[in-house]
Amino acid sequence: MKLIGATASPYVRKVRVVMAEKKLDYQFVQENVWADDTTISASNPLGKVPCLVMEGGEAVFDSRVIVEYLDTLSPVGKLIPPQGRERAEVKTWEALADGVVDAAILARLERVWAHRQEGERSQAWIDYQLRKVNDGLKSMSQGLGDKPYCSGIHLSLSDIAVGCALGWLEFRFPEIAWRSEYPNLGKLLDKLMLRPSFADTIPC
Ligand code: GSF
User: Fold this and answer.
1) Cβ(178) to ligand 1 under 6 A?
2) The CATH number of the domain where 170 resides is what?
3) Within a domain: residue 11?
4) Which residues touch 199 (CB under 8 Å, ≥6 apart)?
5) How far is the CA of 49 from the centre of ligand 1 (A)?
6) 48: CA distance to ligand 1 center in Å?
7) Do 191 and 92 belong together in one domain?
8) Whose CA is nearest to atom 15 of ligand 1?
């Protein structure tokens, strides 16, 4: 399997952490999707990473589809419960964590996207997206409470998605003081960082 991605991307990191936790082998091909000469659309017509390219050349995207597929490849370290309420709970945590990142990326692009002129940037839009980030962080913190993991009693995709979202916020939005406001989220990320899967994929 070939994973097309970038080391700064939280969605790509989620896939790489899952690969490592499941002890799966893959080739990591780095692609700058923002470069004018990117060839990502040959694999993913949406022009986004991560994109998993299978042995036969078929492409699988987006990150939620990829991690769901990877979890079926090996019984090692099951990350998504097979059915029912537990499964819906884990997928909702993933949607929440990804949603926080989606909103933060929209806010960031409004500020930094190279093809948007100064007068075209909307502070109201940035504030609107950052409200979602703050509400999402609050909801994550409330959902985690004083439990060791976001859902269930073991590591699951919930923790991986939340850890990737928090790690990316720390990287791109150091001004958001989520660690002081939500110490339980900081504790979770610190615990995740002790795992090689997280330590080896720090956003850069
Ligand atoms: C989001 C992928 C994405 O936006 C997923 O895979 O979960 N829902 C998708 N990837 C970004 C890279 S990053 O900001 O992490 C991307 O490839 N953006 C390029 C573009 O044209 O939006």
Assistant:
1) no
2) 1.20.1050.10
3) yes
4) 193
5) 5
6) 5
7) yes
8) 9
Q: Which pLDDT score is estimated for 76?
A: 87
- Output the domain CATH number for residue 49: 3.40.30.10
Atom number in ligand 1 closest to CA 98: 7
- Looking at the chain, the whole-number percentage of residues with pLDDT higher than 70 is 100
Mean pLDDT calculated for residue range 58-82: 96
**How far apart are the C-alpha atoms of 174 and 136, rounded to whole Å?**
17
Q: Residues 2-25: what's their mean pLDDT?
A: 98
Provide the mean pLDDT of the chain. Answer: 97
Say if residues 137 and 183 touch (Cβ distance below 8 Å): no
Could you tell me whether strands 2-5 and 27-30 are parallel, antiparallel, or unpaired per DSSP bridges? parallel
Domain that holds residue 150: 84-195
Residues 90 and 67 both lie in one domain:
no
Q: What is the pTM of this model?
A: 0.98
Q: Is any ligand 1 atom within 6 A of the Cβ of residue 9?
A: yes
